[in-house]
Amino acid sequence: MNKKGFTLMEVLIVVAIFAVMVTFFSSVLIISSRVYFESERTMEVMQNGRVFLDAISRELRQARRVVTSVPQDEESAKEEIIFQDGHLDEIREKEVAQGGSGNTVTLSDSSVQEDGFYNDAFIKIIDGPAELIGEKRKIIDYNGETRDAHIGTPFCEEEDYFGLEYLIDTSYYYINYFLDENGTVKRKMYAYYFSDDPHSYVPFDATPPQGESIEKEILESPRVIGEHFESVSIWEDGAVNVVVTLTLEEREVTLMKKIFGRNL
Q1: pTM here?
Q2: Within this chain, do residues 65 and 194 fall inside the same structural domain, yes or no?
Q3: Number of domains in the chain
Q4: What's the domain range around 149?
Q5: DSSP letters of 28-63?
Q6: Each residue's pLDDT tens digit, 219-251
């Protein structure tokens, strides 16, 4: 019986073909991985930019008044904007809670019986235990039938809210979008009051009575809207223009939004 093996030349050819195939598929895999991760980075920065632009567009369209002096040209553009919130009904109520505890405050029997009416408004304790006076919470959801206002964080864990005097005043809420030194866009809310009457909100440019000063009260601490921002440019030419540039690991994306306010 004749036994025939592979010649050295045949072995070398097979090894060479195998090496070429391994190199080819490795290159394809590396390129595919690089494209995938670059695409992921691009999507991440675009998502951050779009979230910011959508949020500021929605609120600016309903703004009652822009506080910031917005430049008329891109060269003088600013990195922040402040405007008066306009998406809530004007509410001004000083009342006494009927009850509740934890994350629920039962509003007075004169409160509006419409589901969601007080959503996004801030409720502030103005009379009651000393440790609660001045505390404020955002109303997340409101049940008109039961008059229960649900808040994100309890005023306290064990206190019964019955008899607490509260303020709900949406007349003058101000929203501030700004870019911080870490490339993060943040949003905060505040209101103004005269020093002798901290429970009545006033316009930011109101003139205080003699002997008093106008003070700022933080309603909502700065919260992150988006990351990876290289720059934010805001200017006006009949509409409010917002241009953002974002970068992540050498990936750069620029987005723009032109916003027309309904009340501006």
Answers
A1: 0.82
A2: yes
A3: 2
A4: 94-169
A5: HHHHHHHHHHHHHHHHHHHHHHHHHHHHHHHHHHT-
A6: 999 999 999 999 999 999 889 999 999 988 778
